[in-house]
Amino acid sequence: MVDLRPFKAIRYTQKAGNPENLITQPYDKISPEQQKQYYEKSPYNYCRVILPMEPNKYQVAQQRIAEWLKEGILAREDEPAIFVSRQEFTLEGKKYQRTGFLAAMRLYEYIENKVFPHEITYKAPKADRLNMLRTIQKDLEPVFLIYSDTEEKTIKFLNHVCETTPIIQVIDASNVKHTVWRVTDSSKIKELHTEFSGKNMVISDGHHRYESAIVYRDEMRSKVDWTEDSAFNFHLTYLVPVQEEGLVVLPTHRLLKRFKLTDTVLEDFKAFFNVTEIPPTVEALEQFLKNHLNEHAFCVYDGAKARGLSLKHSRVVYDFVNTNVSGETKIFDVTILRDIVFKQILKTGDLNIDESILYARWTKEAVDKVDRGEASIAFLVNPINAKTVAQIAQQHQLLPEKSTDFYPKMVSGLMMMDISTSEKL
C-alpha cells in the first residue's frame, strides 16, 4: 500500500503580493530569458528560490527561504493537510480541466514495484537537485505521478472537494487557471488513503527530483536518528488518475543543429518510409501527423521544404526495425526516430541537448526555430497516450528522454514541504 500523508505546507502569505507575480514554471522549464522576467515580476518570485541567478545558488535559496519566513512572506501552516489541485486550460480551441491532489508520499525504490519511472535520467540534473535538497531541506516542487482509478473513486472524492471554497486561485502566463483546495478532515484524508490500497504510481514528470530525493533520504538515514515518520522519507507529490479526462500529453519535437535534408537523405528515407511531399506550413505539418496517428509517422522540415514520413508495411523494414531498434520500446515513434532516422540514416552519433539537439513543444515553435537558424532541421512527432505511458512503465520499459510532455505543467510556488531532520509526518 502506498503511504500518503498530510503535511504542514509552507505557503506565500498575502504580504508577498499578487500570486500571479510569484508563481513560475518548474525550474527545468525556465529559460534564461524567463528567469530575468520572473526576477522583474517580484522580489519574492519563486524563481529566486528554485533557480537563483546569483552565484552560490543553493545558499542563496536557503537564505531567502529563512528570510521570507522571518519576514512573514512565507508561513508554515499549523494544521497538516492534503490539497486538491485543478488546472483549467484551453488547447486547440477545446476546454479541459485536470484534477489531482498534493500529498506527502513515501519514497519507494523502483525495485519495490510501487513507483515506476518511464524515462531515462541523467547525472547532472540529479546532482543539482540533490545539492539543493542538502542545503535547503525543503521539497520546493512536487513530483507529478499518475495512477489508475478504473472505478473512479478518487475522482469522485476530488470532484466533491472541488465543490467547496478554494484557498488559491491564480492564472499563469500560459492562461492556465490553477485552483487549490485544502483538506484537513482526518476522516476524509483516511478515506482517500484507503482508496490507494494496492495502487501503483508512475512518474510522469520529475524523475530527477524523485531519484535525488531517494539519495538524500539514504544520506539522512546514515547521519541522524530517524523513524518511519521522518519527513525526509517522503516527497511532495501531485497525483492524478489516468482516467482524468484532462490528462493531456503533448508531443516533444526534435530539432537537429548540424544536419541537412539533402536529396541523398530523402532517398535513404525511402528505404524505410513512404515519403510524401507536403506544404512547408504549420497547418500542413500538423494535419499530416493527425492523419497518420498510430502509423509510426513523422514530419521533417528544413526551412524550405517539408516531407511526411510513414513507416513502410513490409517484412524487410520490420525485420530491420526488430534488429536495430533498442529494447522493448521499439514500437514507439520516438524510439524508431532515434534509432532508425538519427542513428542509421543521419548517423548523428550521441546527441547532446543545446549542442546538437533541441526540443520544442509546439509545431510553430519548432518551425520558427528552424526559420531563425537556431536549428537546421526539425522532426515532428505525434504524442504518446497517457495510459500507454503508464502501461509501459509498469512493464519496466523506459522511453528515450523527452518522450512525453504532460500539459500543463504544475506551476511552482503554490507550496513547499519541510523535510528537515526534525520534521515528522
Task: Please describe what this structure looks like.
- With 425 residues, the protein is α+β, with helices and mostly antiparallel strands.
- It has 2 domains: 4-248 and 407-418, no CATH class; 252-382, 2-Layer Sandwich (Conserved hypothetical protein from pyrococcus furiosus pfu- 392566-001, domain 2), CATH 3.30.1760.
- Helices cover 32% and strands 24% of the residues.
- It has helices at 32-41, 47-50, 57-71, 123-136, 153-161, 186-195, 207-223, 263-269, 282-291, 315-324, 333-346, 363-371, 386-394; strands at residues 4-5, 10-12, 74-76, 82-91, 94-106, 115-116, 138-139, 143-147, 168-171, 177-183, 201-205, 234-241, 248-250, 253-256, 273-278, 297-301, 306-311, 357-360, 377-380, 405-407, 417-418.
- Strands 1, 4, 5, 6, 8, 9, 10, 11 and 12 form a 9-stranded mixed sheet that branches. The chain has a 6-stranded antiparallel sheet with strand order 15-17-16-19-14-18, covered by helices on one side. Strands 2-3 form a two-stranded antiparallel ribbon.
- A hairpin with a 5-residue loop joins strand 9 (168-171) and strand 10 (177-183).
- Helix 3 runs parallel beside helix 4.
- The chain is globular and about 65 Å long.
- The model has no long low-confidence stretch (mean pLDDT 91).
Topology:
Layout: E1 4-5, E2 10-12, H1 32-41, H2 47-50, H3 57-71, E3 74-76, E4 82-91, E5 94-106, E6 115-116, H4 123-136, E7 138-139, E8 143-147, H5 153-161, E9 168-171, E10 177-183, H6 186-195, E11 201-205, H7 207-223, E12 234-241, E13 248-250, E14 253-256, H8 263-269, E15 273-278, H9 282-291, E16 297-301, E17 306-311, H10 315-324, H11 333-346, E18 357-360, H12 363-371, E19 377-380, H13 386-394, E20 405-407, E21 417-418
Parallel strand pairs: 6-11, 8-12
Antiparallel strand pairs: 1-5, 2-3, 4-5, 4-10, 5-12, 7-21, 8-11, 9-10, 13-20, 14-18, 14-19, 15-17, 16-17, 16-19
